[in-house]
Amino acid sequence: MKAVVGGPRVLRLLEVENPNIEDAEVLIHVEAAGVNRADLLQRKGMNPPPKGASLYLGLECSGIVEHVGGNVTRWKSVFALLSGGGYAKKVAVPAGQKDAASFPAVACTVWSTVFMMSRLLLVRLFCNKQFQIHIGSMKCFGVQVFVTAGDEERLAFCKDLGADIGINYKKEDFIARVKKKQEGKRNLNSLNVGCRLLIIGFQEIVAEVEKNVWPAIVAGKVKPVVYKQFPLSEASEAHRLLESSQHIGKILLLP
């Protein structure tokens, strides 16, 4: 199969061996892979994959299940949150991880931090590419979304996605604006630095996403925001775009 390999300066698309799967895993024929900040760190040697994980980049993908292990009984079309290996034509995935949701890294991050950890009614939302995609999901569950960004274009983009209030942090004080808007309401202290750290098991997060977020995706209430697609052979270009922060939305690689 083809996979992206390389280091800090160069990424190349090379022919490599197909992954082997265990009894509790599936082999996915990858149709698209998401590009994330963690991929940039791994490329630079700052975020090595976990022991036993694929050495190739790629933390999320979508595709078709090509082969299943002996203990797997369901799933054909899938979206997966990975420990690595998404930048390839094929990737082996534990069966319990593949149903993470339509945009797996984002869905699991947003659900775990916003709903499972804080359960806030008010969210300080920087104009971050990851959270832009799930403004819609937060609105589906009644979260009041305040967005901060450094330019009007990004604020308008997030407002179109459903954000309630857009604040240009270069022109006005965010905290003062929120306190004025939310005077008399609770949870304002949650906006301060120094909150609790909670560790939630990944399988629990995936189960929560499948139960709560997936129905909204199927119903079309939550949609992906894709900025640009690159062929897998142009992974370096995709990384350069991500590093530039000139995009608004998700960057994808297509094998």
Would you write up a description of this structure?
The chain has 255 residues and is an alpha/beta fold. Helix content is 30%, strand content 25%. The chain contains 9 helices and 11 strands. The strands form 3 sheets. Strands 3, 4, 5, 6, 10 and 11 form a 6-stranded mixed β-sheet that branches. Helix 2 packs across helix 7. The N and C termini lie close together (10 Å).
Segments where pLDDT lies below 50 for 5+ residues?
Answer: 97-102, 119-123, 186-191, 193-200
From the N-terminal CA to the C-terminal CA, the straight-line distance is 10 Å
Number of helices: 9
- How many strand elements? 11
Write the H/E string, N to C: EEEHEEEHEHHEHEHHHEHE
- Output mean pLDDT: 77
Beta-strand percent range = 25-35%
Itemize the secondary structure elements and their pairings.
Elements: E1 2-6, E2 11-15, E3 25-34, H1 37-43, E4 60-68, E5 77-81, E6 90-94, H2 104-118, E7 122-126, H3 129-132, H4 135-140, E8 144-149, H5 152-161, E9 165-168, H6 174-181, H7 202-212, H8 214-218, E10 226-231, H9 235-244, E11 250-254
Helix pairs in contact: 2-7
